[in-house]
Amino acid sequence: MKSRYARMSQSRSPLRIRATPVITVMLGSLLPAMIPVVSLSPTTPPLGLMLLLAWRLLRPELWPLWIGLPLGFFDDIATGHPVGTAMCLWTLALVVIDSISVRLIWRDYAQDWLIASIAIIAILAMSWLLMHLAPGGGGGPLDRLWPQALLSIMSFPLVARLCARLDRWRLP
Amino acid sequence: MAPPRKRRPGYDRKAQYGLFASYVIAITGALAALLLVVVSAADPAGFAVLRAGVAEVTRPVSGTLRSMVLTIGNLDEIVGSYINAGTQNITLRRQVETTRTKLIEADAIRQENIRLKSLLHLADEEGDVVASGRLVSSSSSSSRRIARLDVGSRSGVQTGMPVRAAEGLVGRVLWAGLNTADILLLVDSENVVPVRRAKDNIPGISRGLDDGTVEIRALNAERNPFRPGDIFVTSGIGGIYRPNIPVAVVARVVGERAIAIPLANPGRVELAIVQRTFQSAEARAPDAATDAAGHGGTGASTGGAGTATGNAATQPPAGAPAE
Known about the structure:
Chain A is mostly helical. Chain A has one domain. Chain A is built from seven helices and no strands. In chain A, helix 4 packs across helix 5 and helix 5 runs antiparallel to helix 6. The longest helix of chain A has 25 residues. Chain A is globular. Chain B is of the alpha+beta class. Chain B is 43% helix and 21% strand. In chain B, the strands form two sheets. Chain B has a seven-stranded antiparallel beta sheet, covered by helices on one side. A six-stranded antiparallel β-barrel of chain B has the order 7-8-9-12-11-10. In chain B, strand 8 and strand 9 form a beta hairpin. In chain B, 38% of the residues are buried. Classes of the chains: A mainly alpha, B alpha+beta. Chains A and B meet through helix 2, helix 4, helix 5 and helix 6 of A and helix 1, helix 2, strand 2 and strand 3 of B.
């Protein structure tokens, strides 16, 4: 830890170090809204969530637990979910991951993927449930989420690689 | 790798409190967010200002890319039409011959319609187009079906206004920002549209299924009167959508419901037209109000056909400047 802060003073600005993860997650939330296709079913992976998970699994000490609140709020605003959905679910996911990682002593890449997969499926299903229970209903049948979930899980390693690459760029 | 040590602060009191506080903030925040969900589910247009701000940022990107995608997306159609050109030519020529007589008949009906309307002192529904724009992106990662339009309140778009394309109904405006507006698509399950069968006025309710189709239920449900191939248009009941906008065509019948495919595919629509809500358009022409409301639901079948052609006659001049 000490050596990292010592190297920090050399070239990288604190802004770059602190802001890169946050900005990537926010961009991830924005990206599905920029894809110029009017899709008729949920298809695009929840990129903001995947980036959040990738950063959290890569650098457990990076963020305080409540980071899910502001980032989730932005995600809700950007993606068009009812505000509060991602705020609530992302935070809960971070809390659960935090309590799991206390118990796991050794962690490897496959475990990260498994944790992320479970989190993605759980959050997609829960946000569908929140929308479904809301007055007015909505969300459609649950099995419509499978393609999106599968695509997200299969592309998670890519996102994790991207985060690792960005991490190397971010830190000296 | 072994986990970093920071999360377990050991004997450091201050760090322990900090950790505890972050848990408390996270949990209470999550609970508060849950309350927010309930509130914002009841009011989907909430936080519209913030959403509009974000939409303004993404609009230029998706707007530029959109025209590109439309070209690529229609590529198969272009190639296919080259291959089918010969046979299509023959069928189209036959169609033209049959439609020519129908057109002449329709022309006569239109003339008659104009004459009858002037007898009744009905104002024509002109100038109901508020703005026209392109659908530039959508909520592709969400399970809601919302598309984003690249015109907003600066062009006069307001919440609740119906949006249609040349092919048929697209949806209605969920909220409008300065230069963007979100459209609740016809296929979203929160979008309920009163419809009627085009040929004989049997009323029904269309509701999205979130998968690109809508379900249509008959209002007087003894048994399902709908058959595959039936075309539905808006009935004008409810006051949002004006009558006779094409909505969907039935693909199959499942028990009490009819599964129908919207006539305007939002993925292919190039130009979307925002109209005034039916009631406010009526309010501007007060004498037309009572009679126009009568057209949609309850008119006899001949009357329905008459209004359909009448409306078709009024639409081209309204849509023409936009195209």
